[in-house]
Design brief:
It holds the Pfam family MoCF_biosynth. InterPro entries: MoaB/Mog-like_dom_sf, MoaB/Mog_dom, MoCF_biosynth_CS, MoeA-like, MoeA_C_domain_IV, MoeA_C_domain_IV_sf, MoeA_linker/N, MoeA_linker/N_sf. One of its GO terms (cellular component) is cytoplasm. Keywords: Molybdenum cofactor biosynthesis. Helices cover 24% and strands 28% of the residues. The chain has six domains: 158 residues, MoaB/Mog-like domain (Molybdenum Cofactor Biosythetic Enzyme, Chain A), CATH 3.40.980; 58 residues, Molybdopterin biosynthesis moea protein, domain 2; 90 residues, Beta Complex (Molybdopterin biosynthesis moeA protein, domain 3); 73 residues, MoeA, C-terminal, domain IV (Beta-clip, Beta Barrel), CATH 2.40.340.10; 84 residues, no CATH class; 109 residues, 3-Layer(aba) Sandwich (D-Maltodextrin-Binding Protein, domain 2). It contains 15 helices and 35 strands. It has an eight-stranded mixed β-sheet with strand order 29-28-30-35-31-34-32-33. The chain has 623 residues and is an alpha/beta fold. The N terminus is likely disordered. α3 runs parallel beside α6. It is elongated.
């Protein structure tokens, strides 16, 4: 038999390129939530409902009308009539009118008429128990978690490529999702070759040079750790026909075939001849030690990699070249340590005298240094953990963590992969589509004003702002686009709403966005123009609109109130109205800007977002 010689060894880079040229993907499948942990999402999942789905009390206390408490304090409390009580899990059977209050439990549905609640510790019951004395004033929305405050309908929940963790499962459960589309793990057929091999559990004849098959099991474990599905085949001898039969069977059933042994240049190592005759041999021999006699090729419709026979060499080659390719096909991140050291991205004050378990996110700056930023929406918010990568323990003696201070982050799992891009700001459907094309971005829909504030603090890579900017900001504009906004009505516009004048002059129930939203800013600007035309006060016009001061957080949430019959009109985007089959009355177009941290413009993910914006809108980013 002709002996195969190693003449021109491939470089490690060439070996990686050869493996990368192979298709290892296992396709797509749907799995139940019970089987979702560790799987990789194949498509974006958007929230189809608000979480919570109702306005709920954040504390034990009394639900009331905020205006009835204005001016109340310890010396001069407001006296309100207690007209009922509402407990968690029950539907309120009482409404709050002027001068009234309802006793309410944490998590209970806010009764009609109430727009705030006061904690029980800031109240007293009078002697007969019919009235409550409120010893503080509250504003509309105080101590209330409004519908959609945790997760808002229409909001991007999880993006494609997300490896589902237990906290993600909690988020999906809260959204009522019981089945998700995921990448099917690549199936990897494992074939150990050599007449001398015996499977563990069988008798081994050392006198004949037999040894136990180590590679099949160690490689199978490595495949599973990398996110693949290992399939063990009977070991093949050194006879070419038998070896060919087993390899062909594995190739018919698997996305990748891994063999170990029979790859060297000796006369009995013939596996490369099988690949040359039955497929395509891309590479034979790599300039590494250990692991020189590696094969890369195709066998029928399957990818193929031949590993050395020695267990140490086989695992070294597998870990260095093959495992990353399996992880890439499965969407599984590279492993890392369970703790990470980084620098605080901004100062965080804390002085409560108790140890704090602070959820944090991780992001890298342009120099590759790890920055740590707090992630905390409150104890009732599921997404506090969904948006975090780990926890920093803050001791009870710590008053604050300084910007730049070194901290140790305990990751939620060793598999945590920090985002390549951290964006904050306005919730926008166009932006969501652009983010789908990036690798592992994280976007926090905090609103325009908080997004710009965080950008000034230097934490995120990018902030997205909608509407007029209140002041100049030191940032590089990556791109901008316009979106049409206006008034959303029920389908067919049964109340015949024609414009902003109807909100001011007619008895219409309106749903606004929060004051942090760019849509709210544009609405206020438009109302100022109306006020100027009428020689009236913009404040008076705002106060004449029923519901102006109570806003919801994300762009679809107000429209959902219209669908539920809880409002006649809502502020929103034309895209939202079209998607939900609702009526729309246009008011104006609003600019949306993607602004980059000036210190991060050279970061690869920021450049990728800029390129996506240029491709979408044909504009170039500022230098």
């Amino acid at each position: 038999m002709e002996r195969k010689e190693f003449r021109d060894l491939a470089t490690p880079e060439e070996a990686r390129a050869a493996i990368d040229s192979l298709s290892l993907e296992g396709g797509l499948e749907r799995v139940s939530l019970e089987d979702a942990r560790g799987r990789v999402l194949a498509a974006r999942l958007d929230a189809e409902l608000d979480v919570p789905g109702f306005d709920r009390a954040s504390l034990d206390g009394y639900a009331l009308r905020a205006r009835d408490t204005f001016g109340a304090d310890e010396a001069d409390p407001a006296r309100l009539e207690v007209v009922g009580e509402v407990h968690a899990g029950e539907e309120p059977d009482v409404a709050v009118e002027e001068g009234q209050a309802v006793e309410i439990s944490t998590g209970a549905v806010m009764p009609d008429g109430a727009d705030a609640m006061v904690p029980v510790e800031r109240t007293d019951i009078d002697g007969e128990g019919d009235d409550v004395l409120v010893r503080t004033s509250v504003a509309p929305g105080d101590n209330v978690m409004f519908a959609g405050a945790d997760v808002a309908a229409g909001e991007r929940a999880l993006g494609p490529g997300t490896q589902v963790t237990p906290r993600d499962i909690g988020l999906l459960s809260a959204l009522g999702i019981d089945e998700i589309p995921v990448r099917a793990p690549p199936t990897v057929g494992i074939v150990s070759t050599g007449d001398e091999l015996v499977r563990p559990g069988e008798d081994v004849a050392s006198s004949r040079g037999e040894i136990y098959d180590v590679n099949s099991y160690t490689i199978a474990a490595g495949v599973e750790d990398a996110g693949g599905e290992a399939v063990l085949y009977p070991h093949a001898g050194d006879e070419q026909d038998e070896m060919e039969r087993i390899l062909r069977e594995a190739a018919e059933e698997c996305d990748l075939v891994l063999s170990s042994g029979s790859t060297s240049a000796s006369a009995v190592d013939v596996i490369y001849r099988v690949i040359e005759e039955q497929g395509e041999l891309l590479l034979h021999g790599v300039s590494v030690k250990p692991g020189k006699p590696m094969l890369v090729g195709r066998l029928q419709n399957s990818a193929y990699v031949g590993l050395p026979g020695y267990p140490v060499s086989a695992m070294m080659v597998f870990r260095t070249f093959v495992a990353p390719a399996i992880r890439a096909a499965a969407g599984v991140p590279e492993p890392r340590a369970a703790t990470v050291t980084g620098r605080m991205a901004r100062e965080e004050r804390y002085a409560e005298g108790r140890m704090r378990l602070m959820p944090v996110g991780l992001i890298e700056d342009s120099d590759g240094e790890t920055l740590v930023y707090p992630v905390d929406k409150g104890s009732g918010a599921t997404t506090s953990l969904a948006e975090a990568d780990g926890v920093v323990e803050v001791g009870p003696e710590t008053d604050y963590l300084e910007e730049g201070e070194s901290v140790t982050v305990r990751l939620f799992s060793p598999d945590v992969r920090p985002p390549t891009l951290l964006g904050v700001g306005e919730d926008d459907p166009t932006l969501n589509r652009l983010l789908d094309g990036l690798e592992n971005p994280r976007y926090l829909s905090v609103g325009t004003r908080p997004g710009l504030r965080r950008l000034r603090e230097g934490v995120p890579d990018v902030a997205v702002a909608a509407g007029p900017l209140e002041r100049e900001i030191d940032a590089a504009e990556l791109g901008r686009w316009d979106r049409e906004w206006g008034l959303i009505t029920r389908a067919g516009n049964p109340r015949e709403v024609e414009g902003l004048a109807d909100l001011i002059e007619r008895d219409l129930r309106f749903v606004n966005r929060t004051s942090d939203s760019g849509l709210r800013s544009s609405l206020e600007s438009a109302l100022e123009s109306v006020a100027a035309d009428r020689d009236a006060s913009a404040r008076d016009l705002r106060e004449s609109i029923d519901g102006f001061d109570l806003g919801l957080r994300a762009h679809e949430s107000p429209a959902r109130k219209v669908i539920a019959g809880e409002a006649d009109v809502a502020i929103g985007l034309r895209e939202t109205a079209d998607r939900l089959d609702l009526g729309f009355v246009s008011v104006d177009e609003q600019p949306v800007r993607a602004l980059a941290n000036p210190d991060r413009t050279g970061k690869a993910s920021v450049r990728e977002l800029a390129a996506a914006l240029e491709a979408e809108f044909g504009t170039e980013a500022d230098d």
